[in-house]
Amino acid sequence: MNTKIKIYQVVILALFIVKAFLFGVLTTDSPNLFLYGDGGEYEIRALALSELGKYGVIEQNSKFSYDTYRLPGYPVFLAMLVSLKNDDQYRLWGAVQLILFHVWLFFVARWIERRFGGRSAICFVSALSLTLSWIHYVMVIHADFQFAVLVFSGFLFLVTAAETRKTGHMACAGLCMAAAALTRPDLVFFWAWLLIMLVAFRVFFFYSRREDMEEQFLCYIKPITVTAISVLVAIIGWTARNYIVASKLVYTSVTSTVNRMFSDNLDVVAMGAAPNDSLLETVHLIFLNGWIIIQNFPPSLAQLFFNPGRWYFHLYLKGLGVDVDTIDVPLNDLQFADIPALEMVYMAFVWSLSLIIFIGFLWYVFKCIRGSVRENFAPICLCLWITMYFILQKGIWGSLTPGIGPRYAMSIYPFLVFLGALTFSNYEKNPQ
Hints:
The protein has 432 residues and is mostly helical. 69% of the residues lie in helices and 1% in strands. The protein has one domain.
């Protein structure tokens, strides 16, 4: 039995200790520091689910109403941990998420090491753990952490299912992605995206006659199909539930908010009828906003990955009782000389890490184009295809709505970091 301690394990443990210490210090005097924004909405649904066993909201008059706005995945997770009173409950939720993240990171790193070597595992662990969104939102009461973990886990199970041809791995891939579809509405078109991939590669292999690549791809057809169907079944199932309990034939009423935001960019003539809450209306509004999306797409991606997130830094400074003059002052209103050295170091770190991740990702893509990588073609293409889905989805959202930032990049980073980490793969020594 090999009990040798791996470097990536030491890195995970060290990062966990640092983050746990930071979390403990920040929540000592401000237990609800990481509960803000949409977090309160998830909290009230979790409490209602814990008390009544039904998913919805308890109104001020103690009347219960079924909810069709927020998806149930994250409130169900929170409801399983409702055991403490008052502020201790927030500490428990944040602490459990922090622990789960590093346990999950251990299993992911081990998966990567077995296939691509220790260097790739170390790079993945270090880079992902130090990105702004994966430092902050791991502790925040919000669905993004759970969603990102489920999606990337689903991808890893999908690859494993193609390798082993085992039904259990296929089921795990489908369950992870289905659970993700019930956590955030981001996967609403994902099932179609996967099926498009199957068709596209079938056409490619038919005309290219690349039998070597086709052989690698064939073992992915069944797992991808199972995953796509699982996501679709989850969406249809929750839509049916909403129709039964609230007479609303919608997957989530969030679409009404999305459609209203997307229609704000259009004049009355271009928009036509008032926006409704259907997904078809969402697609319609995306097409109507086509030119705006093209113009705003690059800046929105820049906000996703290169936003310095000064607000998060200021939140931590406040939690630590440190006062600087730039807190709550927009960056555009500051001169270079006005920014404290500590804040400059923070922003330089955030930008540098994002730049390194993108250089690693682009370099690996370049190696793929040159044909100089030894990894199997199919899983790399699948990873790129899923990455493209989230970049398009988040980029379109950011093009048509204000306030996009690092939180929306959380589900993209594992795929970017994974591909970048493969630049350092010693695949020839790990041909599994």
